[in-house]
Structures are given as structure tokens and as C-alpha cells.
Amino acid sequence: MKKAGLLLLCGAFAFCACQKDPVPSKDTTLDGQSVDVSSISTSAQKLFVLNEGGMGSNNSTLDFLRFEDGKYITSAFKKMNPDIGAGLGDVGNDIAIHGNEAWIVVNNSGIVEVISAEDEVEIAAIAVPTPRNIAFDDTYAYVTSWAGAFVTYGADYSVADSKNVKGQVYRINLSTKKVEGSVEVGYQPEGIACYKGKLYVANSGGIASQLPPMYSYDNTVSIIDTQTFTVSQTVEVQVNLKNVYADGKGNIYVTTLGNYWDVHSGLYMLIAAAPSTVLHIADYVSVSAINGDTVYCIGTDSEYDWSGAAHVYEAWSVAHGVKKALSLTVSETTPYGLGVLDADTFFVGDAGDYFNPGTVSCYHKGTKLWSVTAGVCPGHFATY
Amino acid sequence: MLFAVKNRPIIKPAEWVVIPWLPSAPQQVAEILSRFTGVQVKDYGGAGGLKTVNVRSLGSEHVGIFLDGIQIENAQNMQVDLGRFSTDMLGLVTLYNGQKTKRLQTAREYASGAAVYLETDNYTIFPDGGRVRLKGGSFATVNPSVTWKKELAPFFNLRVNGEFLSSNGKYKYPCFDTTLVRENGDILFLRLEAQLARSYHNGNWKLHVYSYGSERGFPGPVIRRAQGFPFSAERQADQDIFVQGAWTQDWTKRYATSVRFKYANSYTHYNTHPERNPMALPYDLHYRQQSGYLSLAQSLILAFPWTVDLATDLQYAGLNSDMGQFVTPRRLTFTGALASKLVWDRFRMAAYLVYMGAWDWFKTPSAGGWSDEDRYRDSWMPSLSFCYAPWSWLEISAFAKRTYRLPTFNDLYYSLMGNARLSPESAAQFGADINLSKRFEKWSGALRLSPYYNRVSNKIVAIPTSSQFRWTMLNIGVAEVTGLDVKAEAGYEGNLGVNAVLRYTYQRALDHSTPGSQTWGNQIPYIPLHSGSIGFTLRWEQWYLNWDTVLTGERWARSANTADYYLAPWSLSDASLSRQWKGLRASIHFRNIFNQHYQVVQGYPMPGFNWMLSLEYNW
Question: Touching check for A94 and chain B: CB below 8 Å?
């Protein structure tokens, strides 16, 4: 889901993110709604907001907040790439910054879209079947994929075993933007993070839970050695894994969605040096994000109350495995995405009814500063 | 005289078509309905695409589709696919916006918001004999059908019908910056039906057996897709079987009964074929739905002109699937209707009260496995209607009714989405009709004006929960619909026959779900403010020419009526020409003559110009 701080995951890129381009980018002419950014002090140029859209509706859009003049610009990809008639595509599931590029994973389009983070102009569109989330090291982008049955990549897909619905991690060369192989992981892999030559992949089993013969969620993290590009270890965490964050200090955080019945969503931690020991940190995670070495979570203990009663959301953070409550009252209908600019500034995407355009709200020092209308299901944030 | 009066409907149907009287080879049921005022047919394109009907913005779940008075049930989602019913066996297709109030109705008939009636052909269009028809044309469509009829004894008929269709469903459509061919929209089906019907001086009975098997692809929505990945490889195979029957008997001059029953079994195999489409979620699922239905309707003429009807229905439906966390729902529904009618020549009125109670049994996850749960839902549905015909050329009628539709199995129990606590969805309807009709020698003319107001509340809407992968269904939607249907018709019958029909529908269907939200007060999805059609038929000797233009005004695919979800107005013109030579009839039908590119449902492009040739021989 949120990879607001994905740029920080692999330490090397943390510093590129804040470079400013002296040449004004072409998107400066784009205009949008004005919001109050006077109290926000940041070295970032912009905050990207990826709106997922509805599956099959081809309405994923990319918005951004320009910190310089406080303009919130909607549908920037479409505006800056008018030649791409289909727009960004169907279900934008992840966004992460690498250098001066923004990599957008467009799930149901089967596209990893690489754009200039400066002006949103397309650099490359890379075909990857059912891509979900992305992480980087120095040479590759790694993309989790649900398309498990396909073990070879090329012009044609060949089927290893159509009954094997395990997923893959695809490897894309950062300079050539070409796919260079994939490796099989667990069922319906979601989040991915990179730390010191290892990839940590969260396997959800979201589809496997509905299908014979498993009828159960996956509960494992697949650890991939990037040198050999093979799975070196598989660690059991809890059912239905979602996001993975690496804090750069050897702590790997994993969020889970729970089984919607008796196992609640939660946050778990494993140590990169000894990954088989898994710590349960806390329950109830609806949305989460990492910033620096702190993971931020918003959740509710009434998450399995389907009666329609309003939920009360609590925000908390974890650094070095220690949970701390945040004084932040989240007044949103359906928190769907979380972006963290700094310890005081949060952006929460509210999906509303999931069907119509949602909102992005800015929380600063515990209070809500403003809300703007975004696209459908604003779920993913990245700062550049 | 008495019999004729007592069986007269209180309110005339809004629209009807007598299939055997159609000058050219009949089209699909969905095409016939799409011409009717107030009807929106949701069409995903192609011969295999789902076609459902929505009347006066009530939502397709509120539209009962009845075959010979017995509701065609889909407990899973209440979406009846009109593509599965052929005009071959039908004599009459009727739309009732308000209330059908005939004698000896089933309780279900009283309980639906609007109703489409499909009636098998009781009009003897041919005595002993048969018909072979071969249709074919665009999309490599081959569609032969055979009907055979035998009079076993006087007023005792057997009718057998078989139809096969094969179509590759391929057509060109504009896909963003390029033009593509729609793939994986092919369909094969075989439908076999037989009906035994007997009538005698004080009663009749009918037995109908139906079997439909199909295999089709779903082409999927048109979206941005990486080159080399198909839009869809989804396939569905269906096997539907039903047996239904009715027995109506006049016991005395005052008392009559009708017994109806149905058993239906439908099997669906849905497979996304991930081995052919790397973008597919790997689903391979099987569903089987079984239902049984029994109805007793009684009618008693208490004293002229007062008739009382009592109808009691019992229906059972169950759904099995190999999908995970499947709750295997079962439902027993009791529907009872008490109706009272007063019928004079010029003034008729009816009032009824329906009680519907549904008992559901389902499995629910609990500690140590699954436990059984049950739930009971019920509702009362009243209705009042009257008709006044001061002169033969003028008829004024009005109705008010409240109906409820039960939550479907999908609403209640769909894994990761259903909410077993849902209440029935409610629709309050108020409508009036002014019918003017006049015949003058060879000329005839008619005008119908029907203003209406509908309020759908407790509308079942899917909304997300705190966990984005888990949705829930809630009774939160409200839609308020103010509309007007107009139909004007003029004709001349002589050596030359001319008939022209103009239809117009105004529907202001507003989302009034959440005050203060961005969607409050906006037009609900897919309902045009203005829509209509123009039809023109010309007959000269044995030649028939028919022209139809359907117009649909601007619409939005979301209640957020923004530019991103705007659907441009479109018009669609069809023409058909047919010629009769004794038993032989040839028709050619041109659809979308001006090759318009349009979408009824966003993301599902419809075919451009296409044609179908039909040859039939009756003996």
C-alpha cells in the first residue's frame, strides 16, 4: 500500500530525493486548488498522491501537492502525457521514488509506469503481469506479482502449472527498464522492502483463501537474496500479510490484514540479522507508512464491526520496536492511504464510498489543516 | 359478460408487443424491451453479454421478470439475464410500471416493483405444423431454430422448440488512441424447450420444460493494458434446467383457483484461465443454485362487481459453491397477497396487501469451525390503484404502492463483503396514466402520458470498512426519481399500412443518500435525464419496412457527476426489411446503421454497424 517512505527503504536513495532541479519543470504551468502549506516546512518539492480508482474502471490518477505555491493538482499524469489516451490505467497500487524518477505500479493494467518525478512525463512503461508493490536496490526495481502461474518472461508466457497460483517477484533493470527474470514466492505477494542485499516479501494469500485446495491465507514473509535472486528463507508471521517496511537499521516491519473474523490486523517486527524471531507489536492497522526509522499506523479496534457504525481511529507510531501513541484525531470516513512528510505532518487519503472521488487531508501537529478532493481511492503517497 | 369483466386488468400495461404479429423476424427480448418507455437495458455488449433491465430507475432487483406468471429467480444476485430467453416460444412481452391486477395472480406478482411479463404463445399462429428459422450475419453468427407444434386433441397442444446459437462476438471498436477487435466475446448456446398446454371449458393447465446450456467468454472492460496481455480470458459455462406448470380451474361461476409450481436448477462454472491471461486472478469456481416454488391463487367473486383474491406462495432457494468461506445460504420465502377489486365498466379499483417473510439459513465461522445461523426478514407491501374511463377514448389511472426487495445472497453472504444483518430494500411508487386513443375508419391514434414519482430507500449499497479489502453492504442508499413517460402513436391501415411511435422519458433520478456529501442531489449512475425512441413501420402488400431510432441523453457512470465519468449522449438506428411469400419469410435487419460508437456501460464498447439475415419457413 503506502510506500511514502519507500525512497528511504534502501538508504542510498534517501538523499537523492531531496535534490532540487534548477531548471523549472514543465508541470509548473499546471494549476490546481490552493491549500495552506504555510506551516509546513519541508525541503521536498512535491507530494505525489496515487489514486487507485476502481478495478475495471481505468480511472487511476496521479495528483500532486506542490509545496512551493501550495497547489493541489489532480490528474497530473493525464495532463502531462496527453498522447496516452488511456491515461494512467487501472488500479494504481504503489508509487515510489528512485532518483529523479517516480515508479508507479499499475496493477490491473499490468504496467510499471516510470515517469519523471520532475514533470510527470513518461519515461517507460514496463509490462509486468498483475504487479502489486515495488522496492529498489542499486541495480534493480523489484516488483511483487500475483501472476504465479507464469514462470518465464518474454514475448510469450508459458505455463508451468496452471494450478500453482503462487506469486513472483519480478526484477527490472533500473537503467535498461527491462525485466530480467523473476522468482517464485508465496501466495499473492503484496508489500516488499529491500535491506542489505535481502528482499522481504509479504505473502497475503488473499485469493488462495477463497479457493480450493488451500482455503486459507498465506502467513509468510519470503526472504530473497538479491545476489542469487532465490528465496533464502521463509518466515511465518501471521495470516494475510500486507506491507513491509525496513527502517534502515535492521528492523523489518510487517503489517497484516487479519482474517476478518478472529485474527485482527496488526504490526509485527523481525530483525534482519535473525529473521525467524517474530515480534508482535500491536493490533489494528488500517493504514500505515514509514518515515525515517518510524512506522506510523492508523487503526481501529472495531475493525470487524460491519454494522455501519462510525469507527474511532487511533494513530500510533513505532520506532525500534517501541509503540507510542500519537495525539492525532483522524476524522475520516475510510482512511485508505497514509503519507508522512515528517513527525508533525501527515496526509490521509479518505476513500469515502470507494466509488466516487475521495479526499486528501493534511494533519499538522495533531489537527486537520485542510481537505481537498482527490481521485477515486487515494491510497498511496510519495514525496519528491 | 361476467367473466370478461372480472378478468379485466385495472391498469393497462405500459407497453406490450405481440411477437407473432411482428412483421419481421423478432429480435432478442432485451431489444424489444429497450424500446419501451421508462426502461433502461443495461447491456455489456455482444451476444453473450449480460443484459438486464431497469424500470423507472428502481434498479434491476426491483423488476420482476415473469414467465407465464412465474418469476424467473436468481437468488444469488437477482440479475436475470434476458439473453437466455428467446422470442421463439413467446407470444407476448408486456411491461407493467405500476401494478398488474389480474385475476389469479401469484403472490410474487403483487410483490414486485415493476414487472416484465413473458408469456408463451397461446395464440395459434399456426395449427399443426412447425417452423424452421435460420438467422445469421455479423460476428459470424449462426442461429438456427426449429419449432414444432402438434394438436394432440382439441385444445390440447404440444409445442417443442430448439435453438442453437454460435457467435464469435468479434467487432471493431475504438480503444483510446487505436482501434481494436473485441476478443473473447464468443458464445455457444443450445436451448431446448417443450410445452404441453390443455384448455377445457372451465379450466386449463400448462407444463413447461426448459433447458439451456451455454459456454461463453467475457471480454472484460476496456482499460489500459500492457501490450501482449489480453483484456480477459474469463469463461463461463452454464447449465440451466427448469420445469414449471400451472393449473387453473373455475370451480363455480364465482370461485376459481390456480396452482403453479416450478423447480429450477442452474449450474455455473466460472474460470478466469490464468494460463491464458497473466493478468487474471486465478479463480476457478462452481456454483449450483436450486429452487422450488409452489403457489396457490384463489379468486372469489363476492358480489358483482366485487372480487377478492388470495394468493399464497412458498419458495425455497439454495446456493452451493466451492468458493472459500462460502456460507451455503438457503432461503424459504413465504409470500401472501390479499387483493380486493371493484370492477365496473367505467370505473375499476383495486387494493391489495402483501406479506413477505423470508427465512434464511446459512453457515457462519465460529470457534472450532462453522455453526448454523438463521435469520428472518419480513415486510408488508400495500398498494392501491384505480382506473376511470369516462369515454371510450379516454382512460385515467393512478396507483400507489410500496414494495420491498429482499437482500440477495450476494448482498448478505458474499465472502468478504456480505452483511447478514441487511434489511429489505424499499421502493415507494406513485404513478398516473392518461391514455387517449381514437380510431377513425382507417386511422388510429393514441397518446399516453405517465408522470411518476419513486423513492427507493434503505437501498443496499456496498461500502468499504476500516479494512480496505473487506467491504460491507449497508441499507444506506436513497434515490428519488421524478419522471414522465410519453408515448404517442399514429397509424393508418389500408392497402398501405403506416405506423409511427414516438416515445420519450424524462427521469430525474437523484442520489439523496448522504446529506452534505459530494454526490448528494446528483443524477444516479447510468440514468439519462432524457431518453426516447422513434419507430416507424411501413407495410405495402407483402413488404414490411421498419425503422427505429433510440436516443439516450447524457449520463454519468458515478453519482459524482464529473467530466471523468461523463457518458456522451448516443443514438442508435436500426432498420429491417422483410418480405412474406406464403409460408416463407425473409428479413434483413441492420443494426447501428450509422456505425455509432457508444457505451451503455462505461468500459464496455458496443458494436458498430452490423446485420442479421433471417429466413424462415412455416408449415
Answer: no
The yes-or-no verdict on residue A14 having pLDDT over 60 is no
Cα-based distances in Å from B320 to B266, B270, B362, B439: 11, 14, 11, 56
Q: Do B365 and A336 lie within an 8 Å CB cutoff?
A: no
The edge-to-edge listing of strands for the beta sheet with A274-283 is A241-246, A251-256, A266-271, A274-283
Strands A335-342 and A345-350, by their bridges, are antiparallel
Name the one residue in this structure whose C-alpha cell is 525485466: A179
Best residue in A164, A260, A380 for a mutation probing chain B (most B CBs within 10 Å): A260
**B322 contact residues in A (CB cutoff 8 A):** 212
Chain A, window 116-145: residues with a beta carbon less than 8 angstroms from a chain B beta carbon = 125-130
The reported pLDDT for the residue numbered B7 is 55
In chain B, what is the straight-line distance between the N-terminal and C-terminal CA atoms, in Å? 36
Q: Establish if A186 touches chain B: CB-CB under 8 angstroms.
A: no
Q: Strands across the sheet with B70-71, in order?
A: B15-18, B90-96, B114-120, B63-67, B70-71
Amino acid in position A121: V
CB contacts under 8 A, B 215-274 vs A, are 220-229, 273-274
How far apart, in whole angstroms, are the C-alpha atoms of residue B314 and residue B306? Answer: 27
Task: Mark yes or no for CB contact A210/B323 under 8 Å.
Answer: yes
| Chain A residues close to B558, C-beta within 8 Å | 355-356
Contact B42, B51 (CB under 8 A): yes
Grid look-up 535472486 returns A229
Give the three cell numbers for residue A225.
537474496
Distance CA A271, CA B420 (A): 42
Q: How far is CA B70 from the centre of its chain?
A: 13
**pTM for the complete prediction?**
0.89
Tell me the CB-side half-sphere exposure of residue B332, using CA atoms within 13 A: 6
Taking the C-alpha atoms of residue A143 and residue A292, their distance in angstroms, rounded to an integer, is 22
Q: Does A110 touch chain B (CB under 8 A)?
A: yes
Q: In this predicted structure, what is the pLDDT of residue A3? A: 41
* Helical ranges in B393-446 per DSSP H: 409-413
Is B471–A209 a contact, with Cβ atoms under 8 angstroms apart?
no
* Closest by Cα among B210, B105, B218, B207 to B169: B218
CA–CA separation, A260 vs B14, rounded Å?
47
How far apart, in whole angstroms, are the C-alpha atoms of residue A356 and residue A376?
A: 6
DSSP-derived letter for residue A150 is: B
Distance (Å, whole) CA B295 – CA B105: 9
pLDDT tens readout for residues B132-177: 999 999 999 999 999 998 988 888 889 999 999 999 999 999 988 8
Is A286 close to B365, i.e. CB distance below 8 A? no
Minimum CA–CA partner of B470 in chain A: A260
Mean pLDDT of the residues in chain B: 88
d(C-alpha B457, C-alpha B475), whole Å: 8
In angstroms, the first-to-last Cα distance of chain A is 18
The Cα A153–Cα A131 span in angstroms is: 14
Bridge partners of B143, per DSSP, are B135
Chain B partners within 8 Å of A90 (Cβ): 223-225
Per-residue cell: A109: 493494467
In a 13 Å sphere around the CA of B233, the CA atoms on its Cβ side amount to: 17
Q: Which of A179, A353, A354, A377 to mutate to test the interface with B (most CBs of B within 10 A)?
A: A353
Does the CB of B521 have a partner CB in chain A at under 8 Å? Answer: no
Q: Does A352 touch chain B (CB under 8 A)?
A: yes
Mutation for testing the B interface, residue in A306, A330, A332, A350 having most B CBs under 10 Å: A306
Interface residue A266 vs chain B (CB under 8 A):
no
Phi, then psi, of A128 in degrees rounded to 5: -140, 125
Selected residue with higher pLDDT from B605 and B48: B605
Distance in angstroms (rounded) separating the CA atoms of residues B113 and B99: 8
